[in-house]
Write a structure and sequence with these properties.
single chain; 97 residues; alpha+beta; Alpha-Beta Plaits; four-stranded antiparallel beta sheet; globular
Length: 97
Amino acid sequence: MPKGYWIAHVDVRDPERYKDYVAAAKPAFDKYGARFLVRGGAYEAMEGRGRGRNVVIEFPSLQHAKDCYNSPEYQAAKAIRQQVADAEMVLVEGYEG
């Protein structure tokens, strides 16, 4: 079964409150087997609009990724994130070829 991924591009407006989002999201990530592959760090925008923070999270499957996003735990965290950051996020199925 292919793994699932969250790919997020984020501009954080309030770094101190963003820490609250990170803490609130942790239970959902733990529950659904999330593994961070990229979490911030240096980047170089080659095409299109770059954002200040880029995140790639791996899940055991696309269904796990969806279930995490839709979970009550993550929805509570998302409410915090939406107050302190602007983001674009996609969920994508991995390639096993």
